[in-house]
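Lecture 7, part B: from sequences to assemblies.

Below are the input chains for today's worked example.
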Amino acid sequence: MDRYRGFAQFERDHIRESFKPDFEWAVFAEPSPRNPPRVPLAAARVALISTAGAHLPDQPRHDGGTDGDHTYRAIPADADGVQLHHGGYDARRARADPDVVFPLGLLHELAADGVIGAVGPVAYGFMGYIPDTGPLLDETGPEVARALIGDAVDLALLVPA
Amino acid sequence: MSITQVLEITELARPSLACLVEHPFGLTLGPIGDRALQRRVLVDVLEAAYRDVPAGTVLDLGFRWELDDERERQLGRDAR
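Predicted structure of the full complex, as structure tokens:
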């Protein structure tokens, strides 16, 4: 009998059959608390967090093995040459137009047009296959949260791939 | 806040605020080269961060994929 609806069940079955027999979704009873921006969008410093497997040429690719990868790559917002590697989606198309999954260029455009105040100085690249969420919740997630606070970010946007 | 492409996964993770954008995996903001749509999705999502809604809300921004059946195929049981 299915435990979950639709894709959640199909994907769980796939991961258990192909990679990790003990895989289970991390399920949260309560939502994360809201923390709305304190400044208008036109004044807000907006940071990008992406799970598209983004990294710079001199940074290691994420590990696409069966155990996944909870690590992240800190990508300066003015860096060129972002690369995309991720086993869970067809990254070849997105390499031709990275903004579809890693919209750093679009954020710069919005800042230039005054729609947002500024782009956060660092974007954070994760890879979305993280079947063991413990290290993400205990280590790298809080690390990135602290970095975003240190970057004086008003609004952090997570973009999946 | 977060964009989500799959409501049933977001209902498990329960982020503080998510915006549903029903585009295929790998094309989150829209088709390759469609700068206008990508920008509209991004602006709508950022503006949604200011809505007065309770924690755990998933806002359906109305973006649907109508170019082909790629999204439908990705989400099916036989996609893998």
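Note for the exam: Chain B touches chain A at residues 1-6, 8-9, 11-17, 25-33, 35, 38-39, 42-43, 45-47, 49-50, 53-56, 75-77, 79-80 (CB under 8 Å). Keep this in mind when comparing with the next example.
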